[in-house]
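pasting for the record
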Amino acid sequence: MTAQDGHRLGGADPKPQAQQAPPGQPPGGAPLPHASGKKLYVDPAEAGQALAYLDQAVSKLQESYDHSSALDHIQKPGNENPSDGFAKVASDVGKQKRAEILQDINGLRAMYQELKATLDNHHETEHANADNLRRMQR
């Protein structure tokens, strides 16, 4: 709630917001990856950073998955019927969430492997082209 003079009532002014990148640009000004149909274009110069981000995301998801093992075995808080229902629903939701995390991990690993193979293929092609140019110049 703000007073007529523009100051917040009941406390300090809110923290200033972090500066947002302009629309269509990620923070730091790097060009956005863009999709073309089922394909995704990533600048080869930025692919190493994309691989690092994917690897970091997989690590964080794996850590979350490892720490969430207790969600598979929810103990009921008491011996009455509502406790049985709560424990079953909570355990089912926990198992579902763990399965979703595992699915995300596998999807990101597949993306990582595909991007890595594409990047390796790009580098091999670049080296072959450079070798061919050197041979032609002799």
